[in-house]
Amino acid sequence: MSVDLQEQAATESGGGSGGSTGFGELPRIISVDDHVIEPAHLFERWLPAKYRERGPQAVRTGIGRLEYTGASYKITTDPDGPLADWWFYEDLRFPYKRNIAAAGFSRDQMTLEGITRDEMRPGLYDPAERLKDMDLNHVEASLCFPTFPRFCGQTFHEARDKELALACVRAYNDWMVEEWCGDSGGRLIPLVIVPLWDVGLAVAEVVRNADRGVRAVCFSEIPAFLGLPSIHTGHWDPFFRTCEERGVAVNMHIGSSSTMPAASPDAPAAVQASLSFNNAMASMADFIFAGVPARFPRIKLAYSEGQMGWIPYALERMDDVWEEHRAWAGVGDDLSEPPSSYFRRNMYACFFRDRHGVDSLDIIGPDNVTFETDYPHVDSTWPNTRKVAEEHLARLDAETVYKVVRGNAIRMLDLDFDK
């Protein structure tokens, strides 16, 4: 990161008004989708000693080839190549890249090149510095998804040694709760992962963390894409039941199925980036017609970074299918209400830039929408999130704006703010 950009980001408050609004002062934002770059000491400090030698190792070395193929990355190390910070874990070689550590860089610098922590803003991996970057951006509290473990812990699900993988899941969660969030005064909101390969272990991890106040867990938008049982099988019902009973919101980030939609196998990444909301749309139909919110009427399902402009037609179409196609289309007997009713009772959309969605808020429902900054990814509105929010929400009344930028997040995550 250049010194000029660091200084610019450090002095940008993001607090300048985007113009006149109908709601007055913008409330402090609670962002329900940000990201953390794991510190190099995470597993060395938090894994039990007997696992540390075999656990993820923080390595700084050069990158050889780094290519995005449309479905995955092809990556090689090269001691003589440009330096990057990596995790080495079993056969996995995972480097951090500029497009996921983009805060403070210009758009043209947000590339797939490798990056070291020394080149990143410290707020990406240091909780005290993260709070400072949140203050610059009119953000009071933040829920952060993992990077190396991936959006719902796929890294450990794919590992061979499941005893070690379970220890890594628990170590990550202990770090998340006790170190990343521990001294933040509640401003950094814990979000944990679970061992996806064993639903009983997943339930136990939800309980272990709920007992210490955690109210958010990562899950896959489409677990079948990970080679796991689909949500139509009933396999995941013990997990959903536990989340419902403990008041734990199930957070499904786009890409948490390790699959992004594209029209052609050789399409550039721009196609997948443009269509990323499709996974949230597909997942929403999957969950509703699988009867998950019907069986668990108090469950909270959150579509992180899914945006929302697509929701009005998706609900209209699902309601039509429920009404017109029930005789043949596999509409379950337990789906006693139109699909849109389950969305409004159990589901939350999440957006950062979506003018069409805001214009459709009366159809989507102002109680079902949350807000994010996506810090520090390439899509992030940091450090100008306040300006972006004011411009998007300018025509809304104060009560609705409060719900969108913080009130619904407080309810979804059972936070102590404003209570």
What topology emerges from the helices and strands here?
Blueprint (H helix, E strand, L loop, with lengths): L2 H9 L17 E7 L6 H5 L2 H4 L4 E12 L4 E5 L5 E7 L2 E4 L31 H10 L2 E7 L8 H4 L4 H19 L7 E2 L9 H12 L5 E3 L18 H10 L2 E5 L15 H7 L1 H13 L2 H4 L5 E4 L6 H14 L14 H8 E5 L3 H5 L1 H4 L4 E3 L13 H9 L4 H16 L6
Parallel strand pairs: 1-6, 6-7, 8-9, 9-10, 10-11, 11-12
Antiparallel strand pairs: 2-3, 2-4, 4-5
Helix pairs in contact: 7-8
Q: Give the strand order of the largest sheet, numbering strands 1, 2, ... along the chain.
A: 8-9-10-11-12
**In the CATH hierarchy, what is the superfamily?**
Metal-dependent hydrolases
Order of helices and strands: HEHHEEEEHEHHEHEHEHHHEHHEHHEHH
Count of individual helical segments: 17
The main pleated sheet reads as:
5 strands, parallel
End-to-end CA span: 40 Å
Q: What does this entry look like structurally?
A:
The protein is 37% helix and 15% strand. The protein is an alpha/beta fold. The chain has a single domain (3-55, 121-413), classed as Metal-dependent hydrolases (TIM Barrel, Alpha-Beta Barrel), CATH 3.20.20. The longest helix is centred in the middle third of the chain and has 19 residues, at 162-180. It is globular.
